[in-house]
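Materials and Methods. Structural model of Exodeoxyribonuclease III. The 286-residue sequence of Exodeoxyribonuclease III from Luteimonas salinisoli was retrieved and submitted for structure prediction as follows.
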Amino acid sequence: MPRHLKIATFNVNGIRTRLPHLLQWLAQEKPDVACLQELKAADEGFPREEVERAGYGALWVGQRSWNGVAVLARGADPVESRRALPGDRADAQSRYLEVAAHGVMVGCLYLPNGNPQPGPKFDYKLRWFERLIRHARGLYDSGHPVVLAGDFNVVPTDEDIYDPKHWRKDALLQPETRDCYRRLLAQGWIDALRAVHPDARIYTFWDYFRQHWQRDAGLRIDHLLLNPQLQPRLADAGVDRWVRGLEKASDHAPVWIKLRRTAAGTAASKRAAKSKPARPAASGAS
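The predicted structure was written out as tokens:
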């Protein structure tokens, strides 16, 4: 049994289009838990059989052509806790899925982009962020080990972008957006990638324009946040940049952390490894 539990987040930007990339990444990097965003597929379009053949159980909340999130667990079945962010029953966008997997509670999220701003899309982004902050407080106080992982669509500081002056009007850099992120961290969460690499220029997203990937003109908008139960277990964190370099790749690269395993977590993982992942039933967002 490996000494570490590897948890990753990856905005696939279309799971059907990028399925070969996803399967290649799973086979090579072997995350124990993988949070996926921007599936851009209805529930029935999720590639369940292919993911199971790769050795992963899965839960997902799809949405045709837009949004969609999923959590994969290596050699195990993730257990659903919640499939929508609380606070707005009228919100039909598939952006949040919360599961238990390998002894950790995982909140997989795809925070709204918010562009163009100002306007309704930016207003929705801020409302969604406020709902996340409220819900995160309960997770933080739960006493369980919790990871919030996903595409937050926020560049936390000017050190997290190649050239902030050209992005000042973008929703990802607005003072209100950054303030929401700061208030979330102020609950006590740590930004794992920044904790491991406090001074490095690290990016997770490179758009398709003006050769931004080739010039390494990137942004850091994909994050994994840890509550106090997990912070002492953080061993490493990084970005699988090679995935972004594949032909017709997503504009995001997977981001990962390694957590030191506990005795209880190791025992649970051994039990889970003995059982073959079941085929979870698809269901829509509530």
